[in-house]
Amino acid sequence: MWNAGTRVDASSAALRGFIDRARSMPMAEDPAVAANATFLAITCNDTPWPRGQAFADAFSARQGKLYPLLGWSENQNPCYYWNRPALSMTAPDGARVGTTLMVQSVHDPATNARLAYAAHAK
Questions:
Q1: In the prediction, which pLDDT does 49 show?
Q2: Fewer beta carbons within 10 Å, N or C terminal of the chain?
Q3: Percent of the chain with pLDDT strictly greater than 90
């Protein structure tokens, strides 16, 4: 079981570089700024995102027609422009994980139920 005192093996040069960059960044004094930065760092680095202004604008145009209150601003999502390092990481297979209870809200705006079912299936 992982806890805050557990050390991470930073054996890859890419991961070491990422950790060094994170350590050199100034800490936000405003908790709301820190929370937003943490959310974006996790969201934009968790998996590769489509890149670039052309993709973001086309996606925003499609979403705007479907969801006029927020869809038009989809091209402002920082993940489309995030400078994500190329990492090669082993996909977790759950082989050594014991019985686990997964709890998911059907109406969770950040992680929809379809993604939760997919995570459970894996």
A1: 84
A2: N
A3: 13
